[in-house]
# Entry
Amino acid sequence: MSETIYALASAPGRAGVAVIRISGRQTAQIVEQLAGRLPPQRQASLCALRHNGEQIDKGLVLWFAGPASYTGEDMAELHLHGGRAVLAAISQALTALGARLAEPGEFTRRAVTNGKLDLTEAEGVADLVDAETQAQRKQALRQLGGELRALYDGWRGQLTHLQAHLEASIDFADDDLPPDLQQQTQHKLHDLLTQMQAHLADAHRGERLRAGVYAAIIGAPNAGKSSLLNQLAQRDVAIVTPIAGTTRDVLEVQLDVGGYPLTLADTAGLREASDAVEQEGIRRALARAAEADFKLLVFDASAGEVPDFTTLAQYVPGDLLIINKADEADTSVLKAALKDDAIEISAKTGVGLPDLLSAMRTRLDELVGLSPAPVLTRARHRAAVEETIAALQRALEPKTIDMVAEDVRLASRALGRITGQVGVEDLLDVIFRDFCLGK
# Structure
């Protein structure tokens, strides 16, 4: 039986209500000592909590007998007033009664160990806690709901079935087995390989959504990049002056664009610079442009009818072309030079911003929009699927049937590591170290 653990499951700091979670073999005994009784299962009961004859607080107590609990163990929640003194007193009491403070992610780790969740579902819990936009929330809920687990378990089940047929061919070679058994097996392995390759070729959609999309604003000095950043952020993030080269370093803001997470970077103006500091700013601007998932290329309508070719040279398909200061100059020639793909705006007045936001939303939808099929959300998933594909490709090569069976076994084992069915003990510390204490 495991040690009994506790942790604050709500946000730290002064609050109206704080939630303390307890899990482990001594949970029932601890609750009885604090509340004087064990409440009915799954019913919130108002109790005075006491320790050493002194009342700590009065709050709601919920009791969940294992295995019908989040962790699969006996578990309880204390819903108390959220003052620091209350939390300090209840923590001291729980420690004195034999519980210890949980490590990050330990509640969810126990849920995995006790078969309540698989590893992909546990990662979905972490992603749901960290979700900052609606799209991230929806993706995390789908993973927590078992979409990835169902996909990988289905593939693994098929591989196990094929492995059994291959083993039968080896062990009972002299019996009357179907003459085309090996051919059928090859056909099914090829079909699985095709499905996995399609799953892998997702342009890192799920990983991008989980981490957030990165975009950079690129353009000449005084094109209005910083003003555009301030408009999109709806606050003064960057200093705006008429002096060229004001922005020397990269400034970043976190935005929610149509439910998608976007980190938007303002960069130094692109031009020939003799100043060493500005040169470094331009170097960083170009580096951010190279790293970005897409770019906002800003052209100054008041600078003339010829596009800024230094900025235009940074364009790749998927980038957004923006003509700023459209309220100050005729943009028809410049827009025609940009092949009419440019969005006309005024970063000073906000004119055209809705069209730009709509274009950004469309681009984000292309990059990280939710797919009907489950998507990879972590590098470890991708690495395991790549390993599985490599094993299946080896299995399809001309070779003896026992070697094919071994490659199929290795493919199945690689898939099993994603959900936690085989050989994942060394991964658990890495997976759960970034969880919050109450999870």
Summary: The CA atoms of residues 214 and 263 lie 5 Å apart.
